[in-house]
Amino acid sequence: MSYFEKFKEIVLEEVKNTFFNKKNKTEETGSFLELLKLPSSQSISIKIGNVLEKSYNKLIFNINGVENIKDGMISNHQIDLLFLYNNCIYYFEIKNNINLDTEKTRETFNKIKDVEGALLKKYDNVVSKILVNRFPTKEKMKFFKNPISKNDLIGYSDFFDLFNVSVSEAEWKEFFNYVGEVILKDKEI
After folding, report:
1. Phi, psi at residue 133, to the nearest 5°?
2. What is the pLDDT of residue 63?
3. What is the pTM of this model?
4. 122 burial class (0-12, 13-18, 19+ CB within 10 angstroms)?
5. DSSP state of 149
6. Are strands 88-95 and 153-155 parallel, antiparallel or unpaired?
7. CA distance 52 to 10
8. Which class for 13: exposed (0-12), middle (13-18), buried (19 or more C-beta within 10 A)?
9. In sequence order, what are the residues at sequence separation of 6 or more whose Cβ sits closer than 8 angstroms to the Cβ of residue 98?
10. Angle in degrees, 0-180, between the axes of helices 169-186 and 3-19, rounded to the nearest 10
11. What single-letter DSSP state applies at residue 133?
12. What ranges do the domains of the chain cover?
């Protein structure tokens, strides 16, 4: 089973745990939901964001040579994804969408730089980026604001490339279309 196949299995498990055990419905907007083909809802956006963060963290326990070093907070920040792989520390702040409001953009940028600075005090080789679930590569990302630059971003395909796993945009869309169908099949939104 490839790491992407394992990731897909974990996401579906987390979707079932998150969406089928609660009954909150709040209509808002969220562009990642386009992949799921679900109505815009802040509640669903938050839930699917939590599902993906849990899924990435569970996935790294299944990848040979990866050591999860996420343990508590760093520099007074909650950490989304932190691991050691091939003598490099990887820290990712996970976002479904990168089109953030100005204040959230600044907060996110400052957070990755603060955490990166704290990690560099302990480790020599640190990669600190925003992992965006909406786009496969940083080159495809257009809707981000200063102070964030493309160098601060990584797409889902870029993430899986770290482990020599190819995930195409078509595969990602097809999978998350299916996730949306799974959610709709058991629950009216």
Report:
1. -80, -10
2. 96
3. 0.82
4. exposed
5. -
6. unpaired
7. 9
8. middle
9. 130, 132, 134, 135, 141, 143, 144, 148, 153
10. 30
11. S
12. 3-186
What is the rounded distance in angstroms from the CA atom of residue 176 to the CA atom of residue 184? 12
Which residues face 67 on adjacent strands? 84
- Whether the ω angle into residue 39 lies within 30 degrees of 0, i.e. cis, is no
* 65: DSSP letter: T
Torsion of Cα atoms, 31 then 11 then 167 then 57, to 10° = 100
Instruction: Print pLDDT tens along the chain (189 aa).
Output: 899 999 999 999 888 888 775 544 433 333 677 787 776 677 888 899 999 999 999 999 999 999 999 888 898 999 999 999 999 999 999 998 887 788 888 999 999 999 999 999 999 999 999 999 999 999 888 777 889 899 999 999 999 999 999 999 999 999 999 999 988 887 554
For the record, the structure tokens of 29 come out as 């907007």
Residue type, 179: V
Q: Report the C-alpha gap between 49 and 55 in whole angstroms.
A: 10
Q: Where are the alpha helices (DSSP H) in the chain?
A: 3-19, 33-36, 42-60, 102-120, 156-161, 169-186
Distance CA 173, CA 58 (A): 21
**Buried b / exposed e across 58-84, counting CB within 10 Å, b at 16+?**
bbbeebeebeebeeeebeebebbbbbb
